[in-house]
Give the backbone structure.
Amino acid sequence: MTRCVLPTSDAPDLRPAGISVTRIEQCVQSILYGARNAQTTFERRRDTRYMYPLPIRLIPLCSRGEPLIDEATFVLGKHLSPRGLDFYGADPLPYRRAITCFECGPGRSIQMLMELTWCRFCYHGWYENGGRFLQEIVPTTGGLPQPEAG
């Protein structure tokens, strides 16, 4: 068996006073510390972005604006802001617009029409995508959410 020697961590001690920490806990603290400080670039966006690491149902729209229910998928949220969303997906998305469905509690969801504005390949085989919200989608009595004319 190969022995793994890990470097000591320069991450701050995040535990309450008087609590001993195992090496595994130190590693987890280092991971969290690194994740929080990974992006030190200048932030040029106007709106505050909020971490949103939750699944989101994405229903693409065809060029006529009709939902492509058979091509609906789930993506993993990254950041959410009042203007838009960025998220991770397993494949690049060939659509310009989609309905994003956010679960907000038992039996409650909010759907937003979104214009997909960018996509790039990132690490571990994922694609990072993003775009801006255009409007809220109000579900019709027919069942499927339909975008408003406009």
